[in-house]
Amino acid sequence: MDTVRFYTFSYKNPERKKRIEDRFGAEGIAVQFVDCVETTDPRVSCGPPDAQRPWAIMWNHLDMLKQFLETDALYGIFCEDDIKLRIGFSKILPEVLLAYKRMGFDILLLGYLIQYKLVTTTTDYPMIEEPIAYLRYWNDMWGSQMYLLNRATAQRFLEKYTVEYAMSTLSDPSLEHFSPDWTLTKDGDRALVYPMLALEEGVVNTDDYGQQEFHKNCHDAHANDAMYR
């Protein structure tokens, strides 16, 4: 039985795909790619045009969960393809898995978006990067760059977040958006690791200047060539 398996997806971007393969490979980790969901997929095309891109992304995440449950692994780590990995990731991971089980989390964010450091120090009291801290987070924490789930949580998500749920969000404002940031990273007993184990590269495919700056600032606040590759 495998303890943990890793999943991602990459949409028509061979450069990104090569980078993420190389980064995991440097840690001795095999990452599995799921097929990308197109807007022509019936699960997506049933929605309105402005929902089709976020719905396709959500279904990509759910397909990762489905592929994970087809194995006998105890845990799944799910990530996007535009991340840098913490150097020594594979050595840190066993401690993270033990903490996840011991503390009874459903969701553990390993990579996320935040424009400032969660811990500040002075030169008199420099921060020691190990061990990792585990912190609670609220609904204003965004990003599904990398997260850890167990089998029970993955199964619960697949049973809850269906086509019927997605369609219901169009008329029921009490439901969370059909998007990983609103559901898969929020629905359960949750925490994040700090420093993060996966740092977004900071460049996003959008013409929205505010989003461009937000993602760049999130990267720059934590960028450290000695920590992430």
Multimeric state of these chains? single chain
Report the portion of residues in β strands.
Answer: 15-25%
Rg value: 17 Å
Largest sheet: 7 strands, mixed
How are the strands of the biggest sheet laid out side by side? 2-1-3-7-5-8-6
CATH class: Alpha Beta
Structural class: alpha/beta
Order of helices and strands: EHEHHEEHEEEHHEEH
Compute the number of structural domains: 1
The assigned CATH architecture is Alpha-Beta Complex
Helix content: 25-40%
Give the overall silhouette. Answer: globular
Alpha-carbon distance between the two ends: 29 Å
Provide key terms for this protein.
single chain, 229 residues, Spore Coat Polysaccharide Biosynthesis Protein SpsA, Chain A, 7-stranded mixed sheet, 9 strands, globular
Question: Which secondary structure elements does this structure contain, and how are they paired or packed?
Answer:
Elements: E1 4-8, H1 14-26, E2 31-33, H2 42-45, H3 52-69, E3 75-79, E4 83-85, H4 89-103, E5 107-113, E6 133-135, E7 142-150, H5 151-160, H6 163-168, E8 190-194, E9 198-200, H7 209-222
Parallel strand pairs: 1-2, 1-3, 5-8
Antiparallel strand pairs: 3-7, 4-9, 5-7, 6-8
Helix pairs in contact: 3-5
Question: In words, what does this structure look like?
Answer:
By secondary structure, this protein is α/β, with parallel strands linked by helices. The protein has a single domain (4-222), classed as Spore Coat Polysaccharide Biosynthesis Protein SpsA, Chain A, CATH 3.90.550. It is 35% helix and 19% strand. The chain has 7 helices and 9 strands. It has helices at residues 14-26, 42-45, 52-69, 89-103, 151-160, 163-168, 209-222; strands at 4-8, 31-33, 75-79, 83-85, 107-113, 133-135, 142-150, 190-194, 198-200. It has a 7-stranded mixed beta sheet with strand order 2-1-3-7-5-8-6, with helices on both faces. Strands 4-9 form a two-stranded antiparallel ribbon. β1, α1 (14-26) and β2 (31-33) form a beta-alpha-beta unit. α3 (52-69) crosses α5 (151-160). The longest helix is centred in the N-terminal third of the chain and has 18 residues, at 52-69. 34% of the residues are buried. The mean pLDDT is 94.
